[in-house]
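Re: Re: ligand-bound prediction request (bumping)

Still looking for help on this. To restate: I need the protein modeled with S-adenosylmethionine bound, output as structure tokens. Inputs repeated here so nobody has to scroll up.
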Amino acid sequence: MLSNNYTNRLFGRTRGRSKKKINLKNYYEAVDKYKLQNYDEKLDYILDIGTGYGETSIFLARKFSDKVVISCEKYIDGNITLLKNIEKNKIQNIRLYNGNVYDVLESSNEKYFRLVWIFFPDPWPKNRHAKRRLITCDFLIKLHKILKENSEIYIATDSIIYIRFILSSIYNCKDYFLWLNQYEMNLHIKDYFDIETKYYKKAINSQRKPSLFILRKL
Ligand SMILES: C[S@@+](CC[C@H](N)C(=O)[O-])C[C@H]1O[C@@H](n2cnc3c(N)ncnc32)[C@H](O)[C@@H]1O
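Reply:
Sorry for the wait, this slipped through. Here it is.
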């Protein structure tokens, strides 16, 4: 299922700059092995969006071993790293979606998800690219529809422009989500979790402090 609406389109790269040769046939076979076949209504699912090299998916799979993590990413080099780490660590509860998160949302009519993580979504800082940003009120409402009651969304970013944009999206969605940590915005991500992703490290190396937003479904 492909999305043709502008806001649902995919932007950014699907391959790394190094253009290291990849056997795509082997890649898609490996992806297929980790594809979600069907949702099981007895289980709780976690949606991990834009996982890059998959550090968050490994972290979540270990932390919530009774839940199934759906790692959603279109970046092939990142997914290859994730697949290697799943095998190396013998992780059983990750399913991989190689593509656009909108497809996952559109294919899930029921409320299967207990948690959504979005770590360092692309900030698209230029005004002319603002429409590409993922976190809008419309997007949050789409997440609202697939979340179980009282479920939570975690969003991390180090971009001041995106922080402002997320704040206005949260405000516009105040009937759908409660912003749980609005009085704790100055805490560091490490005060919540011991996790470092590629973009977390980039932020710290550039002396930018990542902010974390925690929303609870109303
Ligand atoms: C800035 S990177 C962050 C990667 C990782 N979460 C981290 O913290 O290092 C954002 C990622 O989101 C992915 N992405 C952007 N839009 C997406 C979409 N609509 N569906 C799935 N992944 C998406 C991009 O491919 C990119 O790898």
